[in-house]
Amino acid sequence: MEANEHEHVIEVTGLRRVYGGGFEAVRGIDFSVRRGEVFALLGTNGAGKTSTVELLEGLAAPAGGRVRVLGHDPYTERAAVRPRTGVMLQEGGFPSELTVAETARMWAGCVSGARPEREVLALVGLEAKAGVRVKQLSGGQRRRLDLALALLGDPEVLFLDEPTTGLDAEGRRDTWELVGALRDAGTTVLLTTHYLEEAEHLADRLAIMHEGSIAATGTPAEVTASEPSRITFELPEGYFLGDLPPLAELGVSDHTVDGRTVRLRTRELQRAATGLLMWAHGAGVELRRLDVRSASLEEAFLGIAKDASAGTTAPKEYAA
Ligand SMILES: Nc1ncnc2c1ncn2[C@@H]1O[C@H](COP(=O)(O)OP(=O)(O)OP(=O)(O)O)[C@@H](O)[C@H]1O
């Protein structure tokens, strides 16, 4: 057992993946995941998330760099890593003629110390479908079955590739609850997702990938804080933009005016909001339709992806 096993369950350094035709899908990325953490990999289509997760699962060898899962190389030391990990691929690809229970039983036969099938089917809310053939399940129910199978071995580390794609709102919430409960029980979870709300809700830390590189990492709050906050209001009757205090002095980085609606962007939300409200108070006017808000993870994601496309920023690392 390596000394830092309890600290970093997954360690990725300078990782690269190159496909047959020479295309470099993962271009030297670094990140680590601590025990009991939920870590989300986000990114635009084709960013390299699945290519990365497959390397962590030991399904392929890296073209460069290093991966350690539970202190082992998941590709060359597969036998040491595989029994302690659970994997939910994007496409389960199970025989469609088997029933749900038969599929779970078949899969359990490949897992040492498997939990009872009924138990994992209940965890994902599929116990009532035990006798139904896989081909008769809806897309969302198949994702639940994929998740149930990943849980059969009671894994220490769980890899979930887009676990809630195709699930309805209730199914998504159920999966979030389950992942939260697994995390509380000490399971380390690495997931990929297209749903920023999901990452915001579930992830302790995340990385945003773009074209094979990591554009930003940190907690959702840290990554979100990288994007300016917004203040929107209507100019009071009889007032013009020039009547406001100088915007630069309020810490406003840019602004737009649309009719009487003013939109400000600032990285100093408290200073800008306080200055504006003090001005309104002093002038004895009301700022109608006032809306003051921090950026959402979605806004931060779009901003980071745009910057990365334009090549204007170095990777942003917010994590301690
Ligand atoms: N077997 C392959 N051979 C060649 N190129 C591949 C192969 N698999 C993936 N790629 C390319 O590698 C890049 C990364 O793909 P990957 O599936 O890892 O992205 P992703 O971030 O998971 O995307 P998505 O969000 O769309 O699932 C893409 O440009 C894709 O076309």
Task: Provide tags for this entry.
alpha/beta, 31% helix, Multidrug ABC transporter ATPase, 320 residues, ATP-binding, binds adenosine-5'-triphosphate, 2 domains, ATP binding, disordered N terminus, seven-stranded mixed sheet, 14 strands
Description:
The chain has 320 residues and is of the alpha/beta class. The chain folds into 2 domains: 8-224, Rossmann fold; 228-294, Alpha-Beta Plaits (2-Layer Sandwich). The protein has 10 helices and 14 strands. The chain has helices spanning 49-56, 78-81, 100-108, 117-123, 139-151, 169-184, 196-202, 220-225, 269-283, 297-310; strands at 8-18, 24-34, 38-43, 64-69, 85-88, 157-161, 188-192, 205-210, 213-218, 229-234, 252-258, 261-266, 288-293, 316-317. It has a 7-stranded mixed beta sheet with strand order 5-6-7-3-8-9-14, sandwiched between helices. Helix 4 packs across helix 5 (139-151). The longest helix has 16 residues, at 169-184. It is elongated, with a radius of gyration of 24 Å. The two termini are 25 Å apart. It binds adenosine-5'-triphosphate. One of its GO terms (cellular component) is plasma membrane. It is found in: Cell membrane.
